[in-house]
């Protein structure tokens, strides 16, 4: 009895000793922490939850939330570049894992190597190896991933589909059959929004048209952008576009999702942040209020993107930023953030019971599907290509010329070094 | 003077230099990026390159947009000024109302008009209040275009325009000096026009494939918003001008039997030529610089309503093509100079004559 009491004492003391330096260290942090992201509006609460955890751990730090709004970070990235070129980096900024991080910032030698942090926190084991490869080069690891999003998801409202007598299409041919029926009923078959969502749709269509292996080959430079396969993908994309709403360019992605919710449109292809929007903002129950499937022809493929935060060189509050990255990578941070954001955790040990039905299904797909990188969200290609691709898309939406688009992409790839 | 020298002309020079380098691509954001001199390659790429298609569309948009804005804002502004010049009751109130949009920033104007011109809202639902069907015109998202031409023919079109200008100037000079008009303007103009008409095929194509550009119907919404914002401004300019014309002159014109229309047509508006010129210059450079309004109303990456200034921003800060962005900036700068330099020369000449 005495022995066990002593043991408990020892354990308690040991726990105290272990905990003490951390809390002392945490309380030491003072000053500001500027977090730069494009999470506002519907995505804001998820970021706020993370900041709350951070503030609890580091009450002395004043968190500045430098958010620049705009879907997919269109505006934020421009502001960020001006600041970086002006030698005034934010303490930590949001960046998509993959080429957007490597091809832009790491190539320019602007990032700090986070390998020591990964080793210290034991993150080498908890993040999937494939993901670490995407955020690292042979010289180091460059950011802390906070989530995994799936881009090739098709959304619908089950009750509406039943009403119109349409099944969820498994491939694009089935979609066209259903779409003609929907058109006859005066329903928009596929809701589309402003032009970056067209890029988003393109990658899902191209993936369906080419298949995962050719998609990978495309980005590793083994398949030319003006090869017949890619031209065929553009042709299919042109046909899909003819089933979308004509006022697309003046809608935000949320408005396109709204079209599906209120029955003006049947389907919408959007990343799974749409699930967060429908669950949190629109208060719909996953599986009942809205349904989902892999976008036509891409079952078994998981087109992914990951948001991550990094540590630029020469920031003003480096210690505060490292404490922030620690929160992001922690299990608590990840499992608080992701259910609200509508994404799955990048950690393999996440607590799935905290996630809703959609996210659980996404997490299980992530485990078994062929994982490919998204173009529209910075995984597959660097910013030179992405910036140019937006212009190519712009011209395609106007001219609908598949050959010209494929050729333009080929030139672009040469310039971007793919 | 030194500050202006550095911060205006120095930076213009720096931008010209940047536009002739290959600053872009991977590693463009490094602390010490690599820049190599490539001459006019960026410009050639913009005007004839395969990837410059959206720049060319934006440029065409900007030209149509500028012309429509000038006609709209000056026409409407002048019209309102003439109405207010009649001294109606509550003139002050009207003047304030019409001038008020000027005080808003473009981003606010853009947001308001974006709502007004939304496909399923705003203006389009107005008829439903009268029990009619809603309008279906897609103010900001229409994809149809009019006045379409092929960029391949751009050289021919440029020569036609040059010959047209020569002939117009010739006709203008004809009244003063027949001999000079024929020699200097009319004959060269006609010869040029006929030459292109006959031998135009000799001129090289600008592109190896067809590329159509035109006046996009979607820009109508943006033009409406800008006219709304600037009509009040031109109104104020003209109103000040009208008030500056002495009452005696007006009475004299009336005494000579001029009607109201005649008075404005032959006396007031010709007298306000300097005001018209300054309005043209101010509005044209505003329309060339237009950025925030387009961004707020239709967003980036929108070929239908794209604008070179927006394109420059996206090329530079999203695509990391700093040299290409600089080249676009210089093209815009040169076009703006095309409007302003003749005006400045005219001003100096007038002063010299005095």
Automatic annotation (TrEMBL), chain A:
Pfam family, one: SBP_bac_1
Main location: periplasm
Keyword Signal attached: yes
Source domain of life: Bacteria
Position of the signal peptide: 1-26
Compartments where found: Periplasm
Annotated InterPro entries: Bact_solute-bd_prot1, SBP
Keywords (A to Z) from UniProt: Signal, Transport
PANTHER family for the chain: ARABINOSE-BINDING PROTEIN-RELATED, BINDING PROTEIN COMPONENT OF ABC SUGAR TRANSPORTER-RELATED
Similarity comment: Belongs to the bacterial solute-binding protein 1 family.
Biological role: Part of a binding-protein-dependent transport system for a sugar.
Name the record gives this protein: Probable sugar-binding periplasmic protein
């Amino acid at each position: 009895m005495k022995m066990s009491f002593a043991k408990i004492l020892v354990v308690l003391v040991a726990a105290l000793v272990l905990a003490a330096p951390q809390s002392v260290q945490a309380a030491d942090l003072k000053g500001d922490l500027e977090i730069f992201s494009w999470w506002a509006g519907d995505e804001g609460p998820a970021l706020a939850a993370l900041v709350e955890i951070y503030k609890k751990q580091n009450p002395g730090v004043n968190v500045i939330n430098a958010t620049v709004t705009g879907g997919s970070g269109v505006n934020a990235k421009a502001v960020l570049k001006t600041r970086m070129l002006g030698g005034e980096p934010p303490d930590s900024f949001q960046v998509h894992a993959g080429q957007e991080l490597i091809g832009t910032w790491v190539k320019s030698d602007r990032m700090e190597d986070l390998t020591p942090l990964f080793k210290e926190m034991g993150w080498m084991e908890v993040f999937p190896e494939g993901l670490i490869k995407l955020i690292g080069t042979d010289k180091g690891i460059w950011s802390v991933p906070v989530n995994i999003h799936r881009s090739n998801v098709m959304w619908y409202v089950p009750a509406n589909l039943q009403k119109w007598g349409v099944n969820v299409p498994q491939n694009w041919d089935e979609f066209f059959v259903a779409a003609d029926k929907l058109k006859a009923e005066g329903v928009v078959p596929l809701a589309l929004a402003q032009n970056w969502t067209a890029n988003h749709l393109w990658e899902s269509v191209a993936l369906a048209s080419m298949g995962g292996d050719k998609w990978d080959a495309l980005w590793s430079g083994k398949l030319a952008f003006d090869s017949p396969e890619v031209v065929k993908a553009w042709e299919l994309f042109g046909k899909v576009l003819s089933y979308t709403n004509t006022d697309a360019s003046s809608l935000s992605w949320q408005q396109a999702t709204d079209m599906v919710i209120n029955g003006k449109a049947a389907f919408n292809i959007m990343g799974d942040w749409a699930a967060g929007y429908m669950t949190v903002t629109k208060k719909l129950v996953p599986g009942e209020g809205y349904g989902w499937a892999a976008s036509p022809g891409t079952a078994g493929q998981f087109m992914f993107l990951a948001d991550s935060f990094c540590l630029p060189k020469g920031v003003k509050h480096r210690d505060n930023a490292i404490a922030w990255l620690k929160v992001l990578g922690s299990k608590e941070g990840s499992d608080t953030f992701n259910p609200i954001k509508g994404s799955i955790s990048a950690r393999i040990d996440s607590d799935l019971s905290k996630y809703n039905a959609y996210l659980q299904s996404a997490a299980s797909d992530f485990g078994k599907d062929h994982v490919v990188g998204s173009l529209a969200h910075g995984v597959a290609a660097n910013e030179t290509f992405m910036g140019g691709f937006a212009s190519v898309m712009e011209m395609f939406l106007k001219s609908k010329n598949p050959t010209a688009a494929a050729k333009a992409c080929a030139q672009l790839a040469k310039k971007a070094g793919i | 003077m030194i500050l202006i020298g550095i911060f205006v002309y120095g930076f213009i020079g720096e931008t010209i230099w940047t536009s002739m380098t290959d600053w872009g691509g991977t590693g463009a954001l490094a602390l010490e990026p690599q820049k190599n001199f490539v001459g006019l390659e960026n410009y050639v790429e913009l005007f004839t390159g395969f990837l410059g298609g959206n720049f060319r569309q934006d440029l065409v948009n900007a030209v149509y947009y500028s012309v429509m804005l000038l006609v709209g804002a000056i026409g409407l502004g002048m019209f309102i000024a003439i109405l207010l010049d009649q001294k109606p009751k509550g003139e002050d109130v009207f003047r304030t109302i019409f001038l008020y949009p000027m005080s808003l920033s473009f981003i606010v104007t853009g947001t308001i008009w974006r709502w007004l011109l939304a496909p399923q809202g705003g203006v389009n639902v107005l008829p439903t209040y009268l029990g009619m069907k809603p309008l279906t015109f897609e103010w900001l998202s229409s994809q149809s275009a009019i006045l379409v031409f092929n960029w391949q023919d751009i050289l021919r079109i440029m020569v036609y325009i040059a010959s047209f200008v020569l002939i117009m100037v010739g006709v203008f000079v004809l009244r003063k000096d027949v001999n000079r008009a024929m020699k200097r303007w009319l004959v060269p103009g006609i010869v040029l026009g006929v030459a292109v008409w006959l031998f135009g095929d000799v001129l090289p194509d600008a592109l190896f494939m067809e590329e159509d550009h035109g006046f996009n119907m979607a820009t109508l919404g943006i033009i409406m918003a800008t006219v709304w914002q600037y009509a009040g401004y031109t109104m104020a300019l003209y109103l000040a001008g009208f008030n500056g014309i002495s009452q005696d002159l007006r009475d004299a014109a009336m005494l000579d039997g001029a009607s109201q229309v005649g008075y404005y047509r032959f006396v007031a508006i010709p007298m306000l030529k300097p005001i018209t010129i300054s309005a043209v210059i101010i509005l044209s450079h505003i329309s060339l610089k237009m950025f925030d309004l387009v961004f707020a109303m239709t967003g980036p990456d929108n070929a239908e309503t794209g604008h070179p200034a927006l394109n420059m921003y996206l090329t530079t800060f999203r695509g990391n093509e700093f040299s290409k962005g600089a080249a676009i900036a210089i093209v815009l700068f040169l076009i703006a100079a095309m409007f302003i330099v003749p005006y400045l020369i005219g001003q100096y000449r007038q002063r010299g004559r005095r």
